[in-house]
């Protein structure tokens, strides 16, 4: 991707040459149902203690329809919405980039003003435990791990290749979701299958690490306590869902495993099921690997029960309309979420804070309320008024609740940007 830059030394020279301020960092955060991007402008040679607000943000919703997607773009001054053709994701990303330099959302004169680009990458396997400059080897690794993250890693590669085409030799950084969970103990990461498969890399990796790590740090700030003395369960609830048990600032357990399919019930993913279901489906219907993958990753979860959509907003609307399948899907979702919290509690042996984050966790007060019911024996008590007040980076537990309940706006993009900043300065 660094045409004309033949070695790491060449890249470092490039970075040193372009170390100017204001520094512009573009972040691409490709999820299973959306492509989120933002541009940060850092005006000083040191990072601030708080997340900066992006000077430009854009989101492409791949789920709006089968043929067209909705792109929302906003700057500090304006907001715009566009309907875009989804026949080519590369073209859609190019349209998104064009809003940086054209129209009412213009914030740059030319894309060459971008100094560095950071990508959220879901699966880094055993190869990468920290952020790294992207080269051909890194791209090959991301490609090789597509079977383990089939709804995400292809999207990451699409973003990387789009940047190569549109921005040329600008340095790109991969920030891996798996990195935060690398310190989980072996008894957590090893599956109870023949040991030889562990040696082939089949183990629990965990995901959403960038979000879990950020939210744990924010929890400590909000509570005014050292992170090293807290036991926290972070609930990252979006189209993909996972929990993390965090003790002393370290992830010691999480619900996702070898792939992002394990664990909680999600938008279109089944989460954990009896493995023999796969064998049964293969035997009865002669499904191949691709068909099984399609069922478990794209046609299950909330969508699998309701049949129309895996978007929780749709589920809640259908519940109000009296749809029994929507009611069942919601009850299953909450039941499995509460089961997962129980698993994380067992690992922690106690709890100081329960944290909700990501699209569902931050915005669905019904999910938070239903999840928090029945934990009074832990002295975990939700303040219903606070919960209904659209909280952001706030505590929503009652005053007498020993376990604090928080809603935190996850800043994965800012966390990725800070990784880029550190790499940008690492050669000094």
TrEMBL record:
Protein's pathway: Metabolic intermediate biosynthesis; acetyl-CoA biosynthesis; acetyl-CoA from acetate: step 1/2
Annotated site (Transition state stabilizer): 208, 269
Entry's EC annotation: 2.7.2.1
Pfam family, one: Acetate_kinase
List of residues binding substrate: 120
Cell inner membrane recorded as keyword: no
Essential cofactor(s): Mg(2+); Mn(2+)
Top-level division of the source organism's lineage: Bacteria
Subcellular location: Cytoplasm
Known catalytic reactions: acetate + ATP = acetyl phosphate + ADP
GO molecular function annotations of the record: acetate kinase activity; ATP binding; magnesium ion binding
SUPFAM superfamilies: Actin-like ATPase domain
Classification via PROSITE patterns: ACETATE_KINASE_1, ACETATE_KINASE_2
Catalytic residue positions: 177
UniProt keywords, alphabetically: ATP-binding, Cytoplasm, Kinase, Magnesium, Metal-binding, Nucleotide-binding, Transferase
Binding site residues for Mg(2+): 29, 412
Membrane in keyword set: no
Cofactor note: Mg(2+). Can also accept Mn(2+).
InterPro entries given in the database record: Ac/propionate_kinase, Aliphatic_acid_kin_short-chain, Aliphatic_acid_kinase_CS, ATPase_NBD
Cellular component aspect of the GO annotation: cytoplasm
GO biological process, one term: acetyl-CoA biosynthetic process
Subunit structure: Homodimer.
Entry-linked HAMAP family: Acetate_kinase (MF_00020)
Family, as annotated: Belongs to the acetokinase family.
Stated name of the protein: Acetate kinase
Native organism: Planktothrix tepida PCC 9214
